[in-house]
Design a protein that fits this description.
The protein is α+β, with helices and mostly antiparallel strands and 124 residues long. The chain has a single domain, classed as Aspartate Aminotransferase, domain 1 (Alpha-Beta Complex), CATH 3.90.1150.200. The protein is 39% helix and 23% strand. It contains three helices and five strands, in the order H-H-E-E-E-E-E-H. It has a five-stranded antiparallel beta sheet with strand order 1-2-3-4-5, with helices on one face. Strand 2 and strand 3 form a beta hairpin.
């Protein structure tokens, strides 16, 4: 089965599917939100997860851990975090932590992903 045109991403996704169908379905849903927000994003494997960029500018990524999934945002510190869900204390990066017992909140995740893309467009 081919999910991504990028061989390494495809292999990574298939590995996740073999390990956990729940994490796989969550990652696929999040990945779709990134591409819906900005169809011309490039994806690749970086730092052990799926990283999204445009013009070599990293905007974020999806990282899978044993007990959760993390959606990382390169410039998340600049986001409107009206929901108070972003975690992290670095200068720029912030992340959303998705736990397996949580229902995936597509609208909430999309709110942050759209900011990542908007921030990227504003800096270009």
């Amino acid at each position: 089965m081919s999910i991504s045109i990028v061989k390494e991403v495809n292999e990574f996704l298939l590995d996740i599917e073999r390990i956990s169908s729940i994490q796989f379905n969550t990652v696929i849903a999040i990945r779709k939100l990134f591409f819906t927000a900005k169809s011309d994003l490039a994806e690749g494997i970086k730092y052990g997860g799926i990283a999204f960029s445009i013009s070599n500018d990293l905007i974020g990524g999806i990282y899978i851990y044993k007990k959760h999934i993390s959606i990382e945002f390169s410039r998340g510190a600049d986001f409107n975090d009206k929901h108070g869900k972003l975690e992290g204390k670095g200068k720029k990066r912030r992340h959303l932590k998705i736990l397996p017992c949580d229902d995936i909140n597509i609208e909430l995740i999309d709110f942050y992903i759209k900011q990542a893309v908007t921030d990227l467009d504003a800096s270009s």
